[in-house]
Amino acid sequence: MTELTADESEERRRSIGARRNPDTQEAILEAAEAIVAEEGIAGFSIEAVAKRARAGKPTIYKWWPGKTALLLDVYHRHKPANVHQDTGTVEGDVVAFFTAIFAHWGNTGAGQVFRFVVAEAQRDEAAAASLQSYATERRKQSGQIFERGVARGELAADIDTGLAADMLAGFVWHRLLTGRLIGDPIEMRQAARQLVRGLLAPGR
Amino acid sequence: MTELTADESEERRRSIGARRNPDTQEAILEAAEAIVAEEGIAGFSIEAVAKRARAGKPTIYKWWPGKTALLLDVYHRHKPANVHQDTGTVEGDVVAFFTAIFAHWGNTGAGQVFRFVVAEAQRDEAAAASLQSYATERRKQSGQIFERGVARGELAADIDTGLAADMLAGFVWHRLLTGRLIGDPIEMRQAARQLVRGLLAPGR
C-alpha cells in the first residue's frame, strides 16, 4: 500500500466524511442510544455522545444540526415497523397505527423522549426545525394510508390526505402531551371509526 | 368600629383568603398579564408577579399551585369568546373554532404562551397537572359542539363526543406545536368537513 501524503490523507478523510462513513455514524447513534437508556434525557448532550462514541463534536455536527435532531434519529430507530401497516382498509390501518404507537410510547422510554423533543422545539429554533422536518416526513408516511384508500376507491377523491395525516398525528400527540395514552382497544377502534367515517347521523 | 385582637384579625384575614378576595386575585392576574406583555414569558415568575401585585408569594400559591396554572389563567382570560359559537351546524361551529383559535394564536402573543405551557408540562409535574386540568375543562367545552349536534339529530347518537373534542384539540395543537398555523379559510373548511363528514367515498 502506497503511503499517502498529508494532503492526500486529508482529502481522503474529507471524502469519507462526505460519504457519511457508516461506521462512525452508527457508532454515534449507538452511543446516543446508550446514553438515553442509561442516563435518561437529562444526561444527553452532544458532548456526552462525542465522548462515548470517541468522535469529535464537529463530526457529529456535520451530520446532525443539534441535539434534538440526533435524539429524533435515536427515537425513530426504535419505532416498531408495525406503526405503518397495510391491512387492506383505512380503518384497519388507523387502528394498527394507534395500537402500535400507544404501546410503543407507553411501554418503552420512547414516549418520554418524544415529549422532551416536542418541549425543546417550543423554545429553541434549531430544535423546532428538526421537529418540523421530522413531522413532515411522518406526514408523508402516514399520508400513504389515506392515499392507498383513495386509490382503492374506499376514500373520496377530493379529500386532503395531508390534513387527514395531521388529524391522525394531532390526536396521538395531544393524548401523549396531556398524559392520556390510550390502552383500551375499543377506544382506539372508536377513534379510528370517527376519523374515517366521520360523525354524521345515518342518512345525513 | 371595635378593634380586633391579633387572633381575630388573623381569623379575618384567613376567611377573606378563603373567600378568594376578588380584588387581590384580580390584582395578581393583572400583574401577571402585564409581565407577560412587557417582558415576555422569560421574565415570568411567581416572585415577579408577587412583587408587581404587592402580594405575598403565599397568597399567590394559595390560589394557584404554580407558575403554569397562573399563566394558563392569564392565557384563558384573553381567549376571545368567539372560539366557541353556536352557528346551528357542527361543521359551522368547527370552522368558527378554527378561525378564532388560529387568528388568536397567530395575531397575539397567545400562541407563544400556550407553546410555552405545553413545553413546561412535559418536564414538570405541577405544570403537567395544570395543563391536564385545563385540557379537561376545554374538552368539556368543545364537547358541547358535538353534544348539540347529537341532540339535534345531526350527529350519530353512538359517537364519543369526548374523542371528537380530542380530535379537534389535537389537530390545532399539532399545527401550533410544529409552527404550521392555518390562515387559509379554504383549508379550515376542508379540515372541518373531514372531521365531521369523514373521509369515505360516496356510497361507502
UniProtKB/TrEMBL annotation, chains A, B:
DNA-binding region of this protein: 45-64
The HTH tetR-type domain, residue ranges: 22-82
Chain segments carrying region Disordered: 1-21
Xref: SUPFAM superfamilies: Homeodomain-like (SSF46689), Tetracyclin repressor-like, C-terminal domain (SSF48498)
Protein keywords: DNA-binding, Transcription, Transcription regulation
Species of provenance: Devosia yakushimensis
UniProt protein name: TetR family transcriptional regulator
Keyword Transcription: yes
InterPro entries with a match to the protein in the record: Homeodomain-like_sf, HTH-type_TetR-like_transc_reg, HTH_TetR, Tet_transcr_reg_TetR-rel_C_sf, TetR_C
Pfam families: TetR_C_11, TetR_N
